[in-house]
Design goal:
The structure is a homodimer. Chain A is α/β, with parallel strands linked by helices. The first copy, chain A, has twelve helices and twelve strands. Chain A folds into three domains: 53 residues, Orthogonal Bundle (434 Repressor (Amino-terminal Domain)), CATH 1.10.260.40; 129 residues, Response regulator (Rossmann fold), CATH 3.40.50.2300; 130 residues, Response regulator (Rossmann fold), CATH 3.40.50. The structure holds a DNA duplex.
DNA sequence: CTGAAAGCGCTAACAG
DNA sequence: CTGTTAGCGCTTTCAG
């Protein structure tokens, strides 16, 4: 005669229906604010539901509604200061819409990237936002016809048929160079990682364009594309300075690199911007840190995240699988002038 | 005669069953690696499934299995450099276990905190990890009997009956003070935010304990508890210096504050640590940034996140609702000596 | 080894 | 306004 307390399993609409002496479909209507229930019944149902501590089972709802109220956000590394703001924009906008966001960190591993796409598909998310590791792999197109709204964020493969939200990187690169030029710097270099897809190339080409426009030569020696680590910026600039023949100003492909460059310059006993000016890209939080005070080209990260969600919302509303009428958003970068140039 | 292509809705096990000419329960068995299917059938099913691009519907599975393979992580602000590593630890450990993590950002809003708990419950997550805004609100206990594994992360209400993972904050405060004392500083101050629950109080009391142990007085004027912003550290130390009567060293309740303090000191033309030494708490990434090089008490953030997931896993395995046999993990803080003290 | 059948909790026609 | 009836896609007894 087992007598242990019944597993306090959550109340269902059936329990409510019994308690109210009505059918459970009426309960469903009442709770969902659908019409076709008398105000009396509705009130009664609500009271009972509350009394029982009832809350709906979103999984069951998701199964029948074919909408789970969830989104997937895939990023390389939440620990990289560029991504938290992107994630915040996504999370905030999504939650305002009643959507929950899965955080999927790939650790720069393309395999994990693919695995996560599959997992999200299985979980029946209502949309996927992908901040890809490399701008070259067409993750969405690879899986023949994604059956749900998808958008690339921050970086997008070149001829994708999916939606994306990116910054105008050419313009960003141009802006950086023009700023330097107008401040009187003539010999300007460009330092970045080599991987990163179109985004980097575009920043670089914006730089080249500006130089050409102002009739300034781009010296091959002054363009270095290695990797994205802070360390790397430090080393590159150290070598440049050691060579006794270095540019007057440097554009960094992102802020982390710029930070490394500043350190390198200071370590050599030189001054920023007097001996060498620096401008970064992204505007990560540390850039605005007093003692650092890095001039940079800001990407509107939070707004980018929000925009990505809005595209998903839009795509959902239009019943578009995701690749029929893609939305393309190209955000304007913003020059943030601080003290390094 | 409508002829538009049928919505390419995903294949189900029923489609596979038809194609294979068997019942769909056999398909389920085959796909799930359960025994009771001939190797022949299994292979056949797998082939067909692959051919149809089949993938399971995790929502349907979740409904019947009563396990969704999802976790909820509630944090105040992913943009605060303390949280990304916590989140990374959680995400990585969870994903290794095949679990997906919902990122829930509360923006320091207690109302959002509660709403998210409710939402996660509805979504039938298998566990909730909560890094609470304040150490005083017993979010889990407030909802009478959480029906699933729950763990507080980083900060826990005092007499909670739920599991938690925290750092030994008393020890951390003690460590900070002792380090300073042993380096010869005598007049030591303590700066922190006022809110933050037990964690702050504990750090403070660790500091007081060390001072007492070494027979050093704690001056009331040297203890300031305002808020957690970098700005605030900057202002507090500026005021101290202006008063011409300031401590020789300062313990900051977290690194952000410490950063502000360093700036303030430098701005006054003084030197760290010669004129005033500083030690922080947390070890956020910026702390190790060269030109900053902040000494601090590190919290093992990634491991803390991992530990929280492991507790959830444990609780799930033991079929514990969450408050029967809570697990308590108290991590050791680690002294990181850099150049500010 | 395999199939039939009963749900998981809920929504959504369809009758009344 | 309300109840009945099908499922959503899948797991899991229970018979065969």
């Amino acid at each position: 005669m087992k007598d242990r307390p019944v597993q306090p399993s959550r109340a269902t609409i059936i329990d409510i229906a019994k308690a109210a002496g009505i059918s459970y479909s009426s309960v469903s209507r009442a709770l969902n604010g659908l019409k076709g229930v008398s105000e009396d019944t509705r009130r009664k149902v609500r009271d009972i539901a509350e009394g029982m501590g009832y809350f709906p089972n979103a999984v069951a709802q998701g199964l029948v509604r074919r909408r789970t109220g969830t989104l997937g956000l895939i990023i390389p590394d939440i620990t990289n200061p560029f991504y938290p703001e992107l994630a915040l924009g996504v999370e905030e906008r999504a939650s305002r819409e009643g959507l929950c966001t899965f955080l999927c960190n790939t650790d720069y591993d393309p395999k994990k990237e693919k695995t996560y796409i599959k997992t999200l598909l299985e979980k029946q998310v209502d949309g996927i936002i992908l901040a890809p590791i490399s701008g070259t792999a067409n993750l969405f197109e690879e899986r023949h016809n994604m059956p749900l709204p998808c958008v690339y964020l921050g970086n997008a493969p070149e001829n994708t048929k999916y939606s994306y939200v990116v910054t105008d990187n050419v313009r960003g690169g141009y802006l950086a160079a023009r700023t330097l030029i107008e401040k009187g710097y003539r010999r300007i270099g460009f330092v970045s990682g080599s991987e990163g897809g179109s985004a980097v190339d575009e920043r670089h080409s914006g730089f080249v364009e500006a130089m050409r426009r102002y009739d300034l030569p781009v010296r091959e020696d002054d363009v270095r594309r290695e990797d994205w680590r802070l360390q790397s910026g430090h080393e590159i600039v150290s070598r440049m300075i050691d060579s006794k023949d270095h540019p007057e100003a440097l554009i960094a492909g992102n802020d982390l690199l710029a930070l490394g460059i500043i350190l390198g310059i200071r370590e050599k006993g030189l001054k920023v911007p007097d001996d060498m000016a620096v401008i970064g890209f992204d505007d990560i939080p540390t850039a605005s840190f007093p003692g650092i005070d890095l001039s940079t080209i800001r990407q509107p990260k939070i707004r980018m995240g929000e925009a990505a969600v809005e595209i998903i919302l839009d795509l959902i509303a239009s019943g578009d699988g995701g690749d029929k009428s893609p939305r393309r958003v190209i955000m304007d970068p913003e020059l943030v002038l601080r003290s390094t140039c």
